[in-house]
Amino acid sequence: MAYPKTLSFLISTLLFIHQLHFSAAQTVVKGGYWFPGSGLAVSSINSSLFTHLFCAFADLDSTTYKVTISSSNSAQFSTFTQTVQQKNPSVKTLLSIGGGSANPTTFSSMASQSSTRKSFIDSSIQLARANNFHGLDLDWEYPSTATDMTNFGALLNEWRAAVANESKTSGKTALLLSAAVFRSSDYYSVNYPIQAISNSLDWVNVMAYDFYGPGWAPSMTAPPAALYNPPTQISGDAGITSWVQSGLAAKKLALGLPFYGWAWRLLNANNHGLWAPANGSGIAGDGSIGYNQIKNFISQNGAQTVYNSTVVTNYCYSGTTWIGYDDTQSVSTKVTYAKGKGLLGYFAWHVGADNNWALSQAAFGAWGS
Asked: pTM for the complete prediction?
């Protein structure tokens, strides 16, 4: 039965006020992702350096489209909130769903119909409550067509409505809703649904990293997460600017900080600056390397280190191995930038790659109180 127009308007208004009030409660995000394979025990996370911690990743079942937690992770996930709150009782936790290794086709299929979206939404809320998380984070990498983006918007709107209804019914504080998104407001010319994001998410985590890597930019060294990159639009600043210009409020944005870097193999050990000729990965595997491993590499090889304040990136080199990454200088500069631009905050992928919490402390200190 359709509601009378006046009642429908009242319901819409109350829902909007609820959303506005809840969003206003988020004054800053100093976030960090953790995942079981990082090598860092949950009990070892220095949660005092964060306002929000993301537990990654819950899975999306390709048949039922329900959100699930693998049996191998269930024990750590179920006690995650309790454990990190021992050092910081005020830290908020979010269950993150998906991730870079998840099949984007599964997310596309899930979002394509209201019934499968409902399976996702209902199961995600149930899991968050059952495991004592304060919120949910969607990491769909990435909606890649106009249809995907339209469905993504529908998913977010329905998710918010369901979360608001669950809060009203249970009497509990509404769950936080966030999403990890591409570096800019369009994914290779396919625009994100800005209005749905603005209305339905508390904020988005802008993945302002992985701009370059030896697997997809193998012919020269490059800054993997440059804050500025004047010759191109591939930079953190360009990405944040695109989101704001698209109509999303700065207070809905958190800037991504990579706690890892990428290693290239130099063609000439004596030509070792930015944009130097290179040929593929400088280390075993795909070239990705955690900050803690980078610090070990520098120490063990007597590597030369450079901070480029124009681009805002760090790099080091020894022999033919060249690594682009963020050290404390880059992190501090980026966090100062985020605060100066009026952003909600920042987040890191991932806390297990930090080195004695040096990057986390630099970020926390740069933002200040």
From this structure: 0.93
